[in-house]
Design brief:
The protein has 20 helices and 18 strands. The protein has 573 residues and is an alpha+beta fold. The protein has two domains: 139 residues, Alpha-Beta Complex (Penicillin-binding protein 2a (Domain 2)), CATH 3.90.1310.10; 334 residues, Beta-lactamase (3-Layer(aba) Sandwich), CATH 3.40.710.
């Protein structure tokens, strides 16, 4: 039997059930949608709140990353520490989290009296999420502030540069700012693209030490003697540099007065600049070594030539004389050891003033110093010499160069005539040879070595030689009147001694300066032999054993330096 479903009421009931279920489903969807809207809304609100609350933290993290980057340690050529990063607390505030402004200002001012109260109030009264209050605090100060329990006051750990040797190499190392960024010296160089290229060439790993050419033992010895010189001669300043003649590596460089890089503000005090690279001076008769090198190498004069030093030389209204002159014909070695201005002018004139000017260019005196330090200064030399200008330049007056220019030239004169640019980074002899430029011949180099040693034995370097006995130092003194208000003041001297040692096998060149020295006693003088020369002798006496140089007291070594043309000649006064 068939059944007709249309006769039943179930289909009507079924249709109603569908509608009911549809309504239920729509309601549930509405609830789900409303829930999702509320949930996402809550999440959005929370994100906004987190963004507001943590904006300061994000800013702090960004500031910390930018302000205190990790720097590579700096070490000397033997791995001794020169500069390193240490971790220190720095105080910051989240002003919007501060509840009681007056209380915060009062309590912080009491614990940190160096903070200006008005400045502090202005900092804490803003709506920022992050502001620095005091960078690089001591742990003790951190503990005192922490114990105040001020809401919105917190600490972050930063890197701070620390220099364990303090002043010992301040002008070499330079300093960093509060954000640990280099602002002077090698610290500034470490942030340069050039140093980055050097590190890549060395395959240096990030964070590995930056090794300098400085020998900390030699650096200490040099600085100690310069400090002694200022006290001994009541000078206003003293400076010195020691260079490896074969590689151009600077083993020591100091300029006093100096500063403590742990307190870089002290570097701003008057007179605390690096005289070796950033000061130019008339170096007086040390320049006679340059003149002799140029003239001998030109072939215009021979070491056996003689020069008339009997009368002063006149250029119009200018008259040039000798200091304690011999008033006679002088051989070339005598011109040098007696430091005759008249004889030196005649040597230069034989070469020719234009050729002499070209030689100064050849030895790099017109060029900027090829050294990593940013604190450098260009020489001041006339582009074209007049007759009188060339004459005074031949004995180191009327032109100014940096002491490092002179040290680099002396190194070349005794290093077989090869000039190598100076560096504060390690450099091998092979690398130096690739960079070297010949400025004089090997034969001229041997003659200059002889002249420098002769002056130490019989000339103005005798006091130096007695102090450094056995280390075969050769060198030339230089004394110049200082320029005051545009005029030379003969009551104020600037003295220098440019040297190298040991002269039988030169390894190191050195320049020492003493600014405005006074007499050490009633029997002494103020010219360079009495001060800069003596300082040179004491430095050599200290550093030669450190550098492995043995004393040599054999007269045969000095005899072997005499040129063949002069053997048997009587050069005594």
């Amino acid at each position: 039997m068939s059944i007709d479903a249309a006769g039943f009421e179930d289909p009507i009931a079924l249709e109603g059930g569908k509608k009911s279920r549809k309504n239920l489903t729509n309601g549930r969807l509405r609830l789900v949608i409303m829930f999702l809207i509320l949930a996402f809304g809550a999440i959005g609100v929370r994100l906004v709140m987190l963004g507001v609350a943590q904006a300061g933290d994000i800013g702090a993290q960004t500031a910390r990353a930018a302000a205190a980057p990790a720097r590579p340690p700096i070490v000397d050529r033997n791995g001794r520490d020169l500069a390193m990063d240490i971790l220190v607390p720095s105080l910051y505030a989240s002003p919007r989290q501060i509840i009681d402004l007056d209380e915060a200002v009062e309590k912080l001012s009491a614990e940190l009296p160096d903070l200006d109260r008005e400045w502090l109030r202005e900092k804490l009264d803003g709506n920022e999420g992050f502001v620095w209050i005091k960078r690089e605090m001591s742990p003790a100060a951190q503990e005192r502030v922490f114990n105040l329990g001020i809401p919105g006051i917190n600490f972050r750990t930063e890197s701070k540069r620390y220099y364990p040797g303090r002043n010992v190499a301040s002008h070499v190392l330079g300093s960093v700012n509060v954000d640990n960024q280099g602002i002077a010296g090698m610290e500034k160089y470490l942030d340069s693209d050039e140093f980055g290229i050097v590190r890549l060439a060395q395959n240096a790993q990030a964070g590995s030490s930056a090794m300098l050419s400085i020998d900390l033992r030699v650096q200490y010895a040099l600085r100690d003697e310069l400090a002694d010189a200022i006290e001994r001669y009541q000078a206003i300043a003293a400076a010195g540099v020691i260079v490896d003649v074969a590689t151009g590596e600077v083993l020591a460089m100091a300029s006093l007065p100096d500063f403590d890089p742990n307190d870089p503000r002290s570097a701003l005090e008057e007179g605390r600049f690096n005289r070796i690279t950033a000061g130019t001076f008339e170096l007086g008769s040390t320049f006679k070594t340059v003149t002799m090198a140029g003239a001998l190498d030109s072939g215009a004069v021979q070491i056996t030539d003689e020069f008339d030093a009997r009368e002063p030389i006149r250029f119009g209204r200018f008259t040039i004389n000798d200091y304690r002159g011999k008033r006679r014909i002088l051989s070339l070695p005598e011109v040098y050891k007696f430091s005759s201005n008249i004889g030196t002018i005649r040597v230069m004139q034989a070469m020719g003033k234009d050729n002499y000017r070209a030689f100064l260019t050849r030895v790099g005196f017109d060029d900027a110093l090829a050294i990593e330090l940013p604190e450098t200064k260009l020489s001041s030399i006339p582009h074209v010499f007049s007759e009188v200008g060339a004459a005074t330049a031949s004995f180191g007056h009327g032109l100014s160069i940096t002491p490092l220019h002179m040290a680099t030239a002396v190194a070349a004169f005794v290093n077989d005539g090869i000039m190598v640019p100076p560096t504060l980074l390690l450099r091998s002899k092979e690398q130096a040879q690739a960079l070297g430029t010949r400025v004089i011949s090997s034969a001229t180099s041997l003659q200059i070595r002889y002249l420098m040693r002769l002056n130490a034995l019989e000339g103005s370097g005798r006091r130096m030689n007695r102090i450094s006995d056995g280390y075969l130092v050769g060198g030339k003194t230089g004394t110049a009147d200082k320029v005051v208000d545009g005029r030379y003041d003969d009551s104020k001297n600037f003295t220098a001694f440019a040297s190298a040692f040991p002269m039988d096998d030169p390894q190191y060149a050195m320049v020492i300066l003493v600014d405005e020295p006074k007499r050490e006693n009633e029997q002494s003088g103020t010219t360079a032999g009495w001060n800069a020369g003596e300082v040179t002798g004491r430095v050599v006496q200290k550093i030669a054993p450190i550098l492995g140089i043995m004393p040599n007291f054999s007269e045969l070594s000095d005899a072997a330096m005499v040129p063949l043309e002069l053997r048997g000649a009587d050069l005594s006064d």
